[in-house]
Task: inverse folding
């Protein structure tokens, strides 16, 4: 009996050395990114805003498709509804744009409930096109809302953008013009949203629910047999992802300050790009979308002048990666090196394993 | 009477949607593959016909006959060397590869033909109509609908009366056992997609003669086709026709109430069917 206290106990861990270094690195990176507006120009801030918001969209699509097995082509529904709810809050209810971002997330969450009700009746590839149809329905309905500009769209009123929360304070502190202060504010919010998204998804995946989620994705029948409620996991993932995508959509359109149904519900901008980011980076990992968004940004910077050729190339790259490296760039790296920056696998260590 | 006219126009429009959908339905029925580039392939075929018409001066129907074997070949190669590699239990690869293909095709067409909308020259046929009682029915919509019925009868005959059709059904049921019987699933799939591309060519011909098209309209055609397949029920070609007709009639009724509601009405009809009969009206395949 006394042995128990002296022999080392078995411990279940998920941390690795690489993940501890990565966590420290992530904190440092976050602090550096917070400081960026103090020394960088407006162009860099706008580029970083784009990267961070695309990263948020990619992480949520990855949660949906990579972990939840729900391949949606209708994420633009939640970007658009989030953005339109924010516009509605500002234009119709006279809210400040910043709290109206939350309204965007809530609106996306609410429309996700009937959306899921319909889309979950479809399986696999039909789910994918079903979500797309629902996004189209939302686009066509929003084009009928004349108070928000109808089919041609509308802009945020100047009074609302000029007096936005905290912009005056930022303008004074950093000695920049009002419009630059607005970019800095939205950048900081994007940074906060991206950090919260990654931390939140990582926490979810390491929790008991995350284990259940992976089990459902890998084998729904086996997961059900050990008591996992597969249907509830699908709802959880779908609604979470809609809420986050709606927040990102609202934030993106606070920065753009102009909306139209075709832009806000664009399948290319909010789903095709996001898909390529996740595929190229590596689906089913948290690292994948981070690498993917960087590659996507570099590609865009290199090829954006070529317009249609850029999209053509993106399509071909997506096909090639899917065929020859289905786990993306991060899959290749992690196969070679065994490194996982955000490990979710539980390992048994300590004790006297195999020493009997 | 105006309502009868609206419904008749809708039914005939449904014929066009059934033509869009028949190829999709065929490919899905045999290999459970949803080709997200289906709409863009229709648009590509329309441009191929347009090139033949403008460069060689062929009439549209003859141009489509020339384009058909080309599309057949494209379909065969596409399936054999690209899409067959994506088939398996994982649904991600086929979806993402065909989505990538859709983006690539759309932008290649934009690069080659610009975003200007085009139309196939039709001559007298586009304006001539038949007078039945008080109804005026266009010859072209009627021809489209008749073609849709002919295609469905043809595909059903192929499916249930020929050895190729037997190979299709066998491979669809159980590719492993089928290959033990000397069938090469890879070849069967390639042939199925090639045949689907023949239907696509016919759909493209009517699409191009009836309305303007440009490189960006592919995804919307895919959505109509998909809705027709789902409403009809998986695996039933006649169901697909019924689905196309339901979408067509909803759209013309919607448009008669308010022109801006045309597309929306089709989508709403689709969602309603999904609500009441999640497996479609005439489901055959269990999936």
Result:
């Amino acid at each position: 009996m006394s042995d128990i206290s002296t022999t080392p106990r078995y411990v279940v861990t998920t941390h690795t050395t690489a993940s501890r270094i990565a966590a420290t690195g992530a904190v440092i990176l976050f602090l550096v990114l917070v400081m960026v507006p103090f020394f960088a120009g407006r162009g860099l801030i706008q580029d970083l805003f784009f990267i961070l918001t695309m990263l948020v969209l990619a992480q949520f699509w990855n949660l949906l498709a990579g972990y939840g097995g729900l391949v949606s082509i209708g994420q633009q529904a939640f970007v658009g509804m989030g953005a339109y709810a924010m516009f509605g809050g500002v234009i119709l209810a006279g809210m400040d744009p910043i709290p109206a971002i939350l309204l965007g997330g809530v609106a996306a969450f609410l429309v996700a409930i009937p959306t899921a009700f319909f889309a979950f009746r479809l399986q696999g590839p039909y789910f994918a096109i079903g979500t797309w149809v629902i996004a189209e329905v939302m686009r066509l309905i929003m084009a009928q809302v004349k108070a928000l500009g109808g089919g041609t769209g509308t802009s945020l009123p100047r009074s609302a953008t000029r007096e936005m929360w905290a912009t005056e304070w930022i303008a004074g502190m950093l000695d920049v013009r009002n419009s630059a202060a607005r970019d800095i504010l939205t950048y900081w919010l994007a940074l906060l949203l991206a950090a919260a998204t990654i931390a939140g998804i990582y926490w979810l995946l390491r929790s008991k629910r995350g284990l259940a989620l992976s089990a459902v994705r890998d084998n729904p029948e086996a997961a059900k047999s050990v008591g996992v409620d597969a249907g509830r996991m699908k709802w959880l993932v779908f609604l979470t992802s809609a809420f986050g995508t709606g927040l990102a959509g609202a934030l993106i359109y606070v920065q753009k300050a102009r909306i139209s149904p075709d832009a806000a519900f664009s399948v290319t901008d909010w789903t095709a790009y996001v898909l390529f980011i996740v595929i190229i980076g590596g689906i089913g990992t948290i690292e994948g979308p981070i690498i993917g968004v960087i590659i996507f940004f570099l590609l865009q910077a290199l090829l954006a002048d070529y317009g249609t050729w850029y999209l053509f190339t993106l399509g071909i790259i997506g096909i090639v990666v899917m065929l020859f490296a289905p786990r993306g760039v991060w899959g290749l790296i992690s196969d070679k090196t065994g490194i996982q920056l955000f490990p979710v696998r539980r390992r048994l260590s300590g004790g006297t394993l195999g020493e009997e | 009477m105006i309502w009868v006219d609206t419904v008749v126009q809708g039914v005939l429009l449904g014929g066009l949607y059934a033509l869009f959908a028949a190829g999709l339905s065929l490919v899905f029925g045999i290999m459970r593959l949803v080709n997200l580039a289906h709409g863009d392939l229709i648009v590509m075929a329309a441009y191929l016909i347009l090139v033949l018409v403008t460069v060689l001066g062929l009439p549209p129907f003859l141009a489509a006959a020339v384009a058909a074997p080309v599309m057949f070949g494209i379909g065969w190669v596409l399936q054999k060397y690209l899409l067959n590699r994506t088939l398996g239990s994982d649904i991600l690869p086929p979806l993402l590869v065909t989505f990538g293909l859709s983006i690539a095709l759309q932008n290649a067409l934009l690069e080659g033909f610009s975003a200007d909308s085009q139309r196939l020259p039709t001559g007298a046929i586009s304006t001539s109509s038949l007078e039945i009682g008080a109804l005026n029915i266009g010859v072209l919509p009627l021809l489209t609908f008749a073609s849709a019925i002919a295609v469905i009868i043809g595909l059903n005959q192929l499916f249930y009366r020929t050895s190729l059709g037997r190979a299709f059904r066998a491979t669809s049921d159980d590719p492993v056992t089928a290959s033990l019987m000397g069938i090469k699933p890879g070849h069967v799939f390639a042939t199925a997609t090639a045949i689907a591309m023949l239907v696509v060519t016919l759909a493209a011909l009517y699409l191009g003669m009836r309305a303007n098209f440009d490189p960006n309209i592919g995804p919307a055609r895919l959505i109509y086709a998909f809705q027709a397949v789902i409403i009809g029920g998986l695996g039933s070609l006649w169901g697909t026709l019924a689905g196309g007709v339901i979408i067509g009639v909803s759209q013309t009724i919607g448009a008669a109430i308010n022109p801006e509601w045309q597309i929306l009405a089709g989508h709403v009809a689709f969602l309603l069917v999904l609500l009441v009969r999640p497996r479609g009206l005439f489901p055959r395949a269990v999936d």
Q: What stands out?
A: Chain A has a mean pLDDT of 90. The two ends of chain A are 17 Å apart (CA to CA). Residues 279 and 287 of chain A are 12 Å apart (CA to CA).
